[in-house]
Amino acid sequence: MAVPPPPPPTPVVADTAPVAAPMAPAPAAAPAKTWKDVLVIEGLADSYYQWNITHDGSSRTGPNAVATEGAPAFRAFDTQANSFALNYAKLGFGASFDNVAFRADFGYGHTGSIINGGSPDSLAFLMQQAYASLTLGQLTLDFGKFVTTAGSEVIEANKNWLYSRSLLFNQIPFLHTGVRANFKASDALSLQASIVNGWNNDPDNNEGKTFGLSANITPTPMFNAVVTAYLGKEAAMGDDYRFLLDVVAGLTLSETLALNLNVDFIKEGDVTLFGAALMARMALQEHFALALRGEIMNLDFGIDGVDATQIYEGTVGAIFPFAGHYELRAEVRLDAASEEAFFNGTEAKKMQATGTVAALAFF
Fold first, then answer.
1. Alpha-carbon distance 95 to 175, whole Å?
2. Are 268 and 242 in contact, with CB atoms under 8 Å apart?
3. CA–CA distance, 126 with 146 (Å, rounded to integer)
């Protein structure tokens, strides 16, 4: 009997579901913010040696002495003559979280002593700024202590074209404590209004308050102007008002040449001051720049029979930058006056000349 053929093999059915088409990858999660994204740190070490060519150069003693006896007149911070000096060592911190921010800058040196009062016993430590900010759209409110809006120069020497400050810089406020509102109307116009204790005083030294208004105008990348006014019952004597009108205009002519003009008018009781300073900076090479300044200041004490005093200043400075964070500076400056406003020992003179060498490291 014939054997029937075996049945055909049963087909094997896979027990896995069909493979679907690959899906698009999910978007990567945004990296978490680190301290580098919210925190800004600045630092400065500023030292100098100044030779007062027309002075006797005798030195004053004391760890916090603000000025040597041979120091030049009408200077802001370079008040040490014929002596090495730590002008200013500063650390600054800023942080921003969404619409909330803060800023704190503190330093040590002769600059701190001068801003704190200008006497040999003044503290060399300076709380330059400490304020909190709240941003609401185009409006930012600052509460605390902050630098003034006036002037074409600032406290930190590395941010100025010349090492010595202008005559006008020494006449305007350095710091204010109070509240200010900044409004960015457009990319070309920012406005500021402030209510502060006064000039360089925390706490306030009287019942009056100073009111400030400022406009920052940038119609083109080549031109910028800042107009600032402060008014308050802050006169040194009596109930007279102190008024400051400060105008700064900057013009960038090329990548290597820029100009700056600063004009100030100050009235305090019967005393009036008017001055103008013109500055230029030329970047001649990668490691060499030249800066110039010419200035005139007229001081009228408002006293019958007493003529106004005119003070003139001319400065030439050489800047040698390295690696973007270090500068050597050399500067020669000549000051003159219509009256005998300078002294060589006990001899009154109408002129003084100084030479300065400074080293700045910053980040």
1. 21
2. yes
3. 12
Residue with tokens 């404590």: 177
Query: Which residues are registered as beta bridge partners of 181?
Result: 141, 193
Residue 203: cis peptide before it, omega within 30 degrees of 0:
yes
* Phi, then psi, of 173 in degrees rounded to 5: -70, 155
165 Cβ partners below 8 Å, 6+ apart?
75, 76, 77, 78, 153
- Cα end-to-end distance, the chain, whole Å: 105
Domains of the chain as residue ranges with CATH: 39-362 (2.40.160.10)
Q: What are the backbone dihedrals phi and psi of residue 199, each rounded to the nearest 5 degrees, phi first?
A: -115, 115
The two three-digit tokens of residue 259, written as one number: 């100009």
pTM (2 decimals)? 0.85
DSSP structural state of residue 32: P
For residue 67, the one-letter residue type is: A
Q: What is the pLDDT of residues 257-298, one digit of tens each?
A: 999 999 999 999 899 999 999 999 999 999 999 999 999 999
d(CA 153, CA 363): 19
**Could you tell me which of 325, 320, 323 has the C-alpha nearest to residue 358?**
320
Alpha helices in the chain (DSSP H): 35-38, 110-115
Cβ neighbours of residue 77 closer than 8 Å, sequence gap 6 or more: 87, 88, 110, 111, 114, 155, 157, 165
Which CA distances in Å does 221 have to 152, 218, 236, 247? 18, 7, 41, 18
DSSP letter for 157, please.
G
